[in-house]
Structure formats: structure tokens, C-alpha cells
């Protein structure tokens, strides 16, 4: 299982996560987020750091230049798009970095395959989550009924108590788990001991 830890605001925690061998670490470039990196992380420190994980930049409805500048300034490996970004934008970015297109799944979502279809040829991964900064989870069984046919991350209020359920979720394209608020001491500051316990749950 690939582990993606998002909402990081401290260089020290990125170094700690690197030692835990997580596969993806996310930095939030959404200005309305409590985990917005703002000036908390030095561009030069992040860009020159020799991490084994992939650095993910998280955006929502950004201007293209904003994303391109962040890729250059921070050495971002993967861009995650959480808004209503077009397939054309994903395709343009895919020539620069890997692209994760995120989709909100709620009670009104009936057909995941129809939801992702426009992005099938222009993204590297999908991510499925619930809207808002909360700990709610959608009904994961909807994923087992979809073809999807692209590596995807499961996100939204995931913590230690979900490890058994995650292991039980069977889908050929289930690629990784995205964790954030349930493994924090406060917004943007992870509880590294909890992250360690979570990663060990998949070994």
C-alpha cells in the first residue's frame, strides 16, 4: 500500500516522513486551507532536499502560471488538482509532472466511471474524497462497483482505526491511501508516532 501524507508545513516533518519511507508527501497551496504552506516552508530548502518520496503540490482551481511557478520553485514531482480543473489543464500539466485529479464523492454520486471519463487520458492517478475539511468518509463500496482503470488514492478522514477496512477493500486499481487530519496534533503538524503506527499497519 502506498502512503500519501498531506498538509505538511514543516521541513523537519518532511525529513521524518522520509525516514518512515512514505511514498508521497503533500504541500497545500490552497490559500483558504488551515494547512496552506504560505511562507512556512523555504522554497530552496524543499527544492534542494534529497527526499525519496514524491513531493505533491495540492491546488484547487489555480491559474496555470501559479502551478508552474510552484513546480519550479519547490521541485514538485506531482500536482494534485482538487477543484473543477479541465481535462485540458491536466493534459498541459502532465507534460511537466505527474497529475492526480481529485474527485468529491458524496451521496449524489452514482457513476464514478462517468465522473472520471473525461480525464482518463490526461492524468496519472485519481483521488476520491469527501468535500470540506472534515473527517467524514464516503461509502467505499461505490469504488468496488466501478471499473476506474487508473491507479487511485482513497482519502477523507482516514486514521488508525481504518486500517483493517482499507486492507479489506478490493479493487485492482486501488493504489494508495491519503492521510491528513486524523494523524495530526494540529492543522499542518502531524503526529509522527501515529504516522509510524499507520504505516506499520500495512507491513
What does this structure look like?
The protein has 203 residues and is α/β, with parallel strands linked by helices. It has a single domain, classed as Aldolase class I (TIM Barrel, Alpha-Beta Barrel), CATH 3.20.20.70. The protein contains 8 helices and 10 strands. The protein has helices spanning 11-19, 43-48, 64-74, 87-94, 112-116, 141-144, 163-168, 192-200; strands at residues 2-5, 24-28, 54-59, 78-81, 98-104, 125-129, 152-154, 174-179, 184-186, 189-190. Strands 1-2-3-4-5-6-7-8 form an 8-stranded parallel barrel. A two-stranded antiparallel ribbon has the order 9-10. The longest helix is centred in the middle third of the chain and has 11 residues, at 64-74. The mean pLDDT is 95.
CATH hierarchy: architecture = Alpha-Beta Barrel
Spans of at least 5 consecutive residues whose pLDDT stays below 50 are none
Distance between the termini: 9 Å
Shape: globular
The computed structural class is: alpha/beta
What is the helical fraction, as a range of percent?
25-40%
What is the radius of gyration computed over CA atoms, rounded to a whole number of angstroms? 16 Å
Helical element count? 8
Number of strand segments: 10
- Would you identify the CATH H-level superfamily? Aldolase class I
In terms of DSSP E residues, the strand content is 15-25%
Number of structurally distinct domains: 1
CATH topology: TIM Barrel
Mean pLDDT: 95
Amino acid at each position: 500500500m502506498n502512503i500519501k501524507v498531506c498538509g505538511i508545513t514543516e521541513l523537519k516533518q518532511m525529513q521524518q516522513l522520509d525516514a518512515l519511507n512514505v511514498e508521497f508527501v503533500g504541500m497545500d497551496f490552497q490559500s483558504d486551507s488551515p494547512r496552506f504552506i504560505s511562507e512556512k516552508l523555504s522554497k530552496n530548502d524543499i527544492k534542494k532536499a534529497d527526499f525519496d518520496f514524491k513531493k505533491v503540490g495540492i491546488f484547487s482551481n489555480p491559474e496555470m502560471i501559479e502551478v508552474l511557478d510552484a513546480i519550479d520553485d519547490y521541485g514538485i514531482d506531482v500536482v494534485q488538482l482538487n477543484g473543477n480543473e479541465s481535462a485540458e489543464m491536466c493534459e498541459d500539466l502532465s507534460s511537466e509532472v505527474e497529475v492526480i485529479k481529485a474527485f468529491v464523492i458524496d451521496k449524489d454520486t452514482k457513476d464514478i466511471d462517468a465522473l472520471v471519463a473525461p480525464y482518463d487520458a490526461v492524468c496519472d492517478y485519481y483521488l476520491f474524497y469527501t468535500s470540506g475539511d472534515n473527517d467524514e468518509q464516503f461509502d467505499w463500496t461505490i469504488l468496488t462497483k466501478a471499473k476506474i482503470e487508473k491507479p487511485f488514492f482513497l482519502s477523507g478522514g482516514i486514521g488508525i482505526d481504518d486500517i483493517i477496512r482499507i486492507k479489506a477493500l478490493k479493487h485492482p486499481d486501488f493504489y494508495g491511501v491519503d492521510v491528513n487530519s486524523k494523524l495530526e496534533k494540529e492543522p499542518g503538524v502531524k503526529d509522527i508516532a501515529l504516522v509510524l503506527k499507520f504505516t506499520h499497519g500495512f507491513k
